[in-house]
Each structure stands twice: as C-alpha cells, then as structure tokens.
Specification:
Elements: H1 2-26, H2 30-49, H3 56-82, H4 88-97, H5 101-127, H6 135-164, H7 181-197, H8 203-222, H9 225-236, H10 238-246, H11 258-266
Helix pairs in contact: 1-2, 1-5, 2-3, 2-5, 3-5, 3-6, 4-5, 5-7, 5-8, 6-7, 7-8
C-alpha cells in the first residue's frame, strides 16, 4: 500500500510540475485544473490496483473515480480552449503575487498535488474497506452518481446560458438554487466516496473523511468561491450583488424572491 502511495504522490508532483510549465508557456491557467483532475484520478487508480482481492468494492470506487476524473478534466480543458482570456482566479493570484508569480504558482501547484494525493488516499482507503458489499456501498455509489449527474447538468446549463447571454448572471435551473452548484456537487461526490469507506470509529474512517472535509474547505473558503465571487463582483457589479442577496452561496436552497428582499432592505 505504501509503495502505491508514494507512486501516486510522485504522479501528482510530476503532473502538477508539467501543469505549471504549460501554464507559464501558454498563459492559460485553466489547463491546471484539468491536469489536476486527471492526475488525481490516475493516482487513485494506482492505489486501488495494488489492493488484494476481493475486487467488488475496489472496482466500484475505481469506476466512480475514473468517470469523475475524465468528465471533469474534459470539461475544464475544453472550457480553457474556448475561453478568450486566462482563468480569472489564477489571473487574480498572479496579480497578487507580482514579480514572484512564477515561483509562487509552482509552489501553489505542489500544494495542489498534495491535496490531490490526500483525495487519492481517501478513495483508496474507501476501496480497501473489508467486508461484503451491502447497502452502504449502494448508498455511497448512488450519492456519487447523483453528484456527477448534478455537476454535469450545472456545467451544461451555464455553458448554454453563456452562449445566449454572455456577460450576464446565470440564475437558471440549479444556478437559481445555489450560486455554485458545480462546487456543491463536486463536494457531494466526495461525500459519496466517504460513505463507501466509513467503517466505524477507526483511522480508516478518519482518512476517508479527509476528502469531503478538505474539498469543502478549499471550495468554500480558499480557492473556489472567494476569488471567483470577487471576480464576478468586479465584472458583473450590482447584478451579481443582487444575485448574492437572493441565492444560497453553496448548499442548494430556494431563492429569496426579489420582493421579499426589497421589503427586507426597506426595514433596515
């Protein structure tokens, strides 16, 4: 297991070093996230391949991770090819880092390699849970598949909206329930993987729970929502501010009506 763990870490370190070189050469940082998703998937599959039989649970986790990695990587890389400019999150980081941007980006991507490795370890530990397949496996797989479908639908809705109404704030479908439904479903996917691996109060359970906890923290408080919403406020102004007032930031929830929001503002 530890040989596989070191190999999976090496895969991610090399992949994110390559992502840094590509981003520096092309000035298209969007490739970074696509490479990270694919490398995390490969690193996880390496861990699962070294597991002893039976193969039932490892096969379920491997299939889920493979679908996740290929879908997300394809979406992110395709979006980068279609984009007219650099990813606003990375552009903001480059601006903040100034003349040290290249070095800081390299270090930042190595931190992403470690984050991906923790996800791979969590998924590998989930796959290694002993015992026959049962309701817990069905529940975890169902949550993960629902999350993949939800993220795909959210991405599809946003892409269609941007083709029709570029420059406006999307509040269609899932985007009327959450300002970041793609992030929510990304987190939910790792909740499903964790459910597959929970095995009482053990160190294995602690390890599989690292995945949803770390993904939530990164998306909600670090590299997901904060820089993206800062960019949206700069580019969409009051339209996005009104959207913030109506729609939940992360967990899907019915949006507040414009009338109710107006009445609340008038009582302040």
């Amino acid at each position: 297991m530890w040989t596989g763990a070191l190999l999976s870490l090496g895969i991610l370190v090399v992949a994110m070093s390559a992502a840094w070189a590509i981003a520096e050469r092309t000035r298209r940082s969007g490739f970074i996230d696509g490479i990270w998703a694919l490398a995390t998937g490969v690193a996880t599959l390496v861990l699962i391949l070294v597991l002893p039989p039976p193969i039932g649970r490892p096969l379920i986790v491997a299939l889920l991770i493979a679908i996740w990695a290929v879908r997300l990587s394809r979406h992110l890389v395709g979006r980068t090819f279609r984009a007219a400019s650099d990813d606003p999150r990375y552009a903001a980081l480059r601006h903040d880092w100034g003349e040290h941007a290249a070095r800081q980006l390299f270090l930042f991507l190595q931190m992403q390699a470690v984050a991906g490795w923790l996800l791979a370890l969590a998924a590998g530990t989930a796959a290694a849970r002993t015992g026959p397949l049962g309701w817990q496996d069905g529940l975890g797989a169902t949550i993960a598949l629902m999350a993949l479908a939800g993220e795909w639908q959210a991405d599809r809705t946003l892409a269609a909206f941007r083709r029709e109404q570029s420059g406006k704030v999307c509040d269609r479908g899932l985007w009327g329930w959450s300002r970041h439904p793609n992030y929510f479903f990304e987190w939910l996917f790792w909740v499903g993987i964790a459910v597959l691996g929970i095995s009482g109060i053990t160190w294995q359970t602690g390890l599989v729970l690292i995945a949803p906890i770390s993904i939530y923290w990164l998306l909600v408080h670090v590299s997901g929502i904060p820089p993206l919403e800062r960019h949206m406020l700069e580019s969409r102004g009051e339209a996005f501010r009104a959207y913030q007032a109506r729609v939940s930031p992360f967990f899907p929830w019915p949006a507040k009506s414009a009338q109710a929001e107006s009445q609340r503002d008038s009582t302040r």
